[in-house]
Specification:
Layout: H1 3-21, E1 29-31, E2 38-40, H2 44-55, H3 59-70, E3 76-81, H4 89-101, E4 106-111, H5 118-129, E5 133-135, H6 138-141, E6 150-155, H7 161-175, E7 179-183, H8 215-223, E8 227-232, H9 244-250, H10 252-255, E9 273-276, H11 280-295, H12 304-315, H13 336-352
Parallel strand pairs: 3-4, 3-7, 4-6, 5-6, 7-8, 8-9
Antiparallel strand pairs: 1-2
Helix pairs in contact: 1-3, 1-11, 1-13, 3-11, 4-5, 4-11, 4-12, 5-12, 7-8, 11-13
The chain binds zinc ion (ZN).
Zinc ion binds next to loops.
Length: 362
């Protein structure tokens, strides 16, 4: 690739980054209860800008490049998420699809859920909506189903800190994942307390409490040399400690959660690449677009019809939008139309990025 093409590729990555990190169609104000404090979500753009400057490369492009360098056919990739709101399952499913169609990896979508509950179905229905066949055991990944387009849905139970550390080593021994990607996997801060977007704590910080714990898994994977990528829109997502200094400068709840721990909501664990975007789902779609561009295969990025299906499938399980708290096929208080338009923008940017306009006279 010559210098000109390198510059064009970087420009493509910046365009994708800006599309997924621009809150167009998003409600900017999140109020903590009627008459409560208002949180301005536009500040997140500053978090993106400073993170982009620190890495010196478009974040979605960097993530896609590293994924394609490190992940090959048959390699496992862990995708850590939640299935209790709309930000998580659709982005995870879309990444799973991109990893199958692109590098032909084996996606493992991990979340905490009750077997047979709507929270399990949110994952399986999102995968199906994204054309991927969910399976529940490793045996089903190889041999028993003729199609290669399967993803393993893996339940990560609530655990004490010690149990989570042990379970993480066991899982890594079993699957040897080449990469771990978090898609709205909220995790504990340095005081062991897990917080919501508006600072609300969900536990006391006792290491022997059985709660959803992701930090141990990401830390263990990183120690073993797996690529770690974190997506998020608030700072409480697993992996965001890498940019803690940027977060506390701009985000009031990252500075102080307001709960008795006063540790701020920032995750205690860092990832190699951190992508602050309008939502974790949107960051995941941006990584897809960049993988598609690098591989020269537009099909790696899912299309509008698939996008509509994945959002509706997930919402129809009774999963709420994380901001509006209603079961609408949207993410984090962005309108459904904006979410749909996002995929069109990404697809058009991808399609046009390989074209050249020649200006000449007859
Ligand atoms: Zn706290």
């Amino acid at each position: 690739m010559d210098e000109f093409d390198k510059q064009v590729l970087e420009g493509f990555g910046d365009t994708v980054d800006r599309i997924v990190a621009t809150p167009s169609g998003a409600s900017p104000v999140l109020r903590n209860g009627r008459g409560g404090l208002r949180h301005n979500r536009y500040i997140w753009m500053r978090v993106y800008d400073e993170t982009r400057a620190r890495y010196g490369r478009p974040l979605t492009l960097l993530a896609a490049e590293r994924l394609l360098e490190r992940v090959g056919p048959g390699d496992h990739v862990l995708i850590l998420t939640n299935s209790h709101e709309m930000d998580g399952p659709p982005g995870s499913a879309a990444l799973a699809r991109a990893l199958l169609v692109g590098p032909r990896a084996i996606p493992v979508v991990m979340a905490n859920f009750q077997e047979g509950s709507k929270h399990e179905r949110a994952l399986t229905q999102s995968l199906t909506g994204c054309q991927v066949i969910p399976v529940k055991s490793r045996d089903e990944l190889r041999g028993s189903i003729w199609t290669p387009y399967t993803a393993l849905v893996y339940n990560w139970p609530t655990m004490t800190m010690g149990e989570a550390a042990e379970a993480s080593e066991r899982l890594l021994d079993e699957l040897y994942p080449k990469a771990v990607i978090t898609v709205e996997a909220t995790s504990c801060n340095e005081k062991g307390v897990r917080h919501g977007a508006l600072g609300g704590p969900s536990n006391r910080g006792d290491p022997d409490e059985r709660i959803v714990r992701w930090n141990q898994l990401l830390d263990a994977a990183r120690r073993r040399g797996a690529l770690t990528i974190a997506t998020g829109d608030n700072g409480n997502e697993c992996g965001f400690n890498t940019i803690k200094d940027i977060l506390v400068r701009h985000h009031p709840y990252c500075r102080d959660c307001g709960c008795p721990c006063h540790g701020g909501i920032v995750s205690a664990t860092g990832a190699e690449i951190v992508i602050p975007a309008t939502s974790s789902n949107w960051a995941a779609y941006g990584v897809e677009a960049c993988m598609a561009r690098l591989l020269g295969n537009p099909d790696v990025l899912h299309d509008e019809y698939t996008h509509s299906r994945v959002l509706v499938n997930c919402a129809n399980e009774g999963i709420p939008d994380g901001a509006t708290a209603m079961a609408s096929p949207s993410t984090d208080g962005c309108s459904r139309e904006a979410d749909m338009a996002l995929i069109t923008q990404l697809r058009q940017t991808l399609a046009m990025s390989v074209k050249e306009i020649v200006r000449e006279s007859r």
